[in-house]
């Protein structure tokens, strides 16, 4: 086993890996950006080092800085978590070149599966077919139009080196092609550092079913159940469950065997997931994620295998401790991704800010994988996942009931979350009957009146608060804990910035902190109420900013690249 592991990530996945290492007696090293100096993963790790910067590109995507920490700290392995460098073959090679073990698949497998086009070819080579798609990178909107005319609309533009719904845009008609391609490339660059995209036919009513794999370095491969991840918005998952319900056992087994074929066809090792679309009794290969998935806990709960421990053991050269015939599924598990977003009646608006209070639920069959504690800040520069609530039941009905109970007990104040929408989803007859699809949330689910309440923190008066005091020496973090009256906290007396209402006024304000990535109008241009006038990126998601009245753009107060705060007026329509 390893002597010391560096976690090249942040948030709840960094916390998850640190805990798994601690269970095995392995010391851990955390890295942190300027904004994460007091983050939970920093507090939990045995050692923590600064890599500077604020944005992902400046910090957690800074290969040189991370490898320097690895060398300085004397680690012999790096776990990439998910996102950031987890599916980056160049990073995996750079780690190996330092004589350090990359806890993930070989760079060659990442390369084949990280390029979604070559991944399609690799799957087809072993007899696993996907939906109709393109085998070359997109170069123009005209190619999108031609593909749509040939295969039918809608079509999906997808980031070739991405995943998790990032850098994916659905194009309903030819007129949308140019703008959708530009947006997909922009998101892909922001999140994965590369803008290559490709095309696929977009199925109209599919379920998203995936197979969890674990493969060792000796040629052994096992699939650990299937997961249904059909509850999505913006092509990003909200609820996941294992096993996938209401699908014939023989179809699920065929999916599992197909996933193993795909993995063995590219000499895969470590944890990975093969994703499929299922519709009308048939399934189609979608992609392979060459990393640990966000939703891995539901598989752990129903199979009894700790996937992060297996990752560590496989990376250390051990053989799998089980055969396919040893894998048994017990009961049913549901995972709720709790994001810092206001459901906003279906708009799902990011809500960065400070978590003033968080009390996760507990009880039998209830697990919380979180990345934040009370007083921690959720930054606009990173993903908005607060954490994951996982509940188990001996049946799917019990799992749903237990999850609803836990959600209604959950206390999070200071930021808006998706909890109100999660409750509506779980209570809906479509979810209970398992007749929903990946289009259900955005096309069918009625979220009218479903909004988040920020809540009022009871951290008032002279309540004593824990204060982590950071001491940084030569880029290495040390901390100390003190307890002080809240009234003595710096900035306590400062009032919050008031958000000016722009309803019908012609003064277009942004609803949240973020970065203006695009202006779609010019001064003097005529606009109609509801027209998009700007695109705001917040927490790795792009949000269209619309004007509230018809008229002429009188003045524009920002330009692309500007950072803005919630309530800032960016332009005026007269």
Keywords:
26% helix; 15 helices; Dna Ligase, domain 1; 7-stranded mixed sheet; globular; D-amino Acid Aminotransferase, Chain A, domain 1; single chain; 574 residues
Structural write-up:
This protein is an alpha+beta fold and 574 residues long. The strands form 8 sheets. The chain has an 8-stranded antiparallel β-sheet with strand order 13-12-9-10-11-14-21-19, with helices on both faces. It has a 7-stranded mixed β-sheet with strand order 5-4-1-2-3-24-23, sandwiched between helices. The protein has a 4-stranded antiparallel β-sheet with strand order 25-32-30-27, with no helix packed on it. It is globular and about 70 Å long.
What's a concise summary of this model?
The chain is an alpha+beta fold and 574 residues long. It has 15 helices and 32 strands.
Secondary structure: elements and pairs:
Elements: E1 5-7, H1 11-23, E2 28-32, H2 40-44, E3 47-50, H3 63-73, E4 77-79, H4 89-97, E5 101-102, H5 107-114, H6 116-125, H7 141-151, E6 155-159, E7 169-171, H8 177-192, E8 197-201, E9 207-215, E10 221-233, E11 236-242, H9 249-265, E12 270-279, E13 282-289, H10 296-303, H11 307-315, E14 332-339, E15 341-342, E16 349-350, E17 353-354, E18 357-359, E19 366-370, E20 377-378, E21 385-393, H12 396-409, E22 411-413, H13 419-427, H14 429-432, H15 440-443, E23 464-473, E24 476-485, E25 507-509, E26 514-519, E27 526-527, E28 532-538, E29 541-546, E30 551-556, E31 563-564, E32 569-573
Parallel strand pairs: 1-2, 1-4, 2-3, 4-5
Antiparallel strand pairs: 3-24, 6-7, 6-8, 9-10, 9-12, 10-11, 11-14, 12-13, 14-21, 15-16, 17-20, 18-22, 19-21, 23-24, 25-32, 26-28, 26-31, 27-30, 28-29, 30-32
Helix pairs in contact: 4-5, 7-8, 12-13
């Amino acid at each position: 086993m390893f002597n010391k592991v560096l976690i090249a990530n942040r948030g709840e996945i960094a916390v998850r890996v640190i805990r798994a290492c601690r269970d095995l007696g392995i010391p851990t090293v955390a890295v942190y950006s300027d904004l994460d100096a007091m983050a939970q993963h920093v507090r939990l790790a045995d050692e923590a080092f600064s890599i500077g910067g604020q944005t992902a590109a400046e910090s957690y995507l800074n290969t040189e800085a991370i490898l320097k920490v690895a060398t300085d700290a004397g680690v012999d392995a790096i776990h990439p978590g998910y996102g950031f460098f987890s599916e980056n073959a160049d990073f995996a090679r750079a780690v190996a070149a330092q004589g350090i073990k990359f806890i993930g698949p070989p760079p060659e497998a990442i390369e084949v599966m990280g390029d979604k086009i070559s991944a399609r070819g690799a799957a087809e080579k072993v007899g696993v077919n996907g939906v109709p798609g393109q085998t070359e990178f997109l170069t123009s909107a005209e190619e999108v139009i031609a593909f749509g005319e040939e295969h039918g609309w809608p079509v999906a533009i997808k980031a070739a080196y991405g995943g998790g719904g990032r850098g994916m845009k659905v194009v309903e008609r030819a007129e949308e092609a140019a703008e959708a391609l530009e947006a997909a490339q922009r998101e892909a660059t922001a999140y994965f550092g590369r803008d290559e995209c490709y095309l696929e036919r977009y199925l109209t009513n599919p379920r998203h079913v995936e197979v969890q794999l674990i493969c060792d370095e000796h040629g052994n491969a096992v699939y650990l159940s299937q997961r249904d991840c059909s509850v999505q918005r913006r092509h990003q998952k909200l609820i996941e469950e294992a096993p996938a319900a209401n699908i014939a056992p023989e179809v699920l087994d065929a999916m599992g065997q197909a996933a193993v074929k795909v993995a063995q066809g590219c000499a895969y090792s470590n944890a990975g997931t093969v994703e499929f679309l299922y519709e009308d009794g048939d399934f189609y290969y979608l992609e392979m994620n060459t990393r640990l998935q966000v939703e891995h806990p539901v598989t752990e709960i129903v199979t009894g295998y700790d996937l992060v421990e297996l990752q560590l053991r496989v990376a250390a050269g051990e053989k799998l401790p089980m055969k396919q015939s040893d894998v048994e599924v017990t009961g049913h598990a549901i995972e709720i991704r709790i994001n810092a977003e206001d459901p906003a009646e279906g708009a799902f608006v990011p809500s960065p800010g400070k978590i003033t209070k968080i009390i996760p639920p507990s009880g039998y069959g209830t697990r919380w994988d979180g990345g934040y504690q009370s007083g921690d800040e959720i930054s606009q520069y990173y993903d908005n996942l607060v954490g994951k609530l996982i509940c188990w039941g001996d049946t799917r009905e019990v799992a749903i009931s237990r999850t609803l109970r836990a959600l209604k007990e959950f206390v999070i104040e200071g930021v808006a979350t998706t909890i109100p929408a999660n409750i509506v989803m779980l209570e809906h007859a479509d979810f209970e009957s398992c007749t929903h699809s990946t289009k259900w949330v955005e096309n069918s689910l009625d979220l009218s009146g479903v909004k988040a309440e920020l809540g009022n923190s009871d951290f008032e008066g002279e309540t004593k608060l824990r204060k982590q005091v950071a001491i940084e020496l030569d880029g290495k973090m040390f901390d100390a804990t003190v307890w002080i009256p809240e009234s003595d906290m710096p900035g306590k007396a400062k009032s919050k910035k008031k958000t000016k209402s722009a309803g019908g006024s012609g003064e277009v304000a942004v609803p949240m902190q973020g970065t203006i990535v695009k202006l779609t109008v010019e001064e003097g241009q005529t606009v109609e109420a509801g027209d998009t006038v700007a695109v705001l990126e917040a927490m790795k998601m792009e949000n269209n900013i619309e004007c509230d009245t018809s008229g002429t753009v009188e003045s524009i107060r920002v330009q692309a690249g500007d950072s803005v705060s919630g309530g800032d007026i960016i332009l005026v329509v007269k």
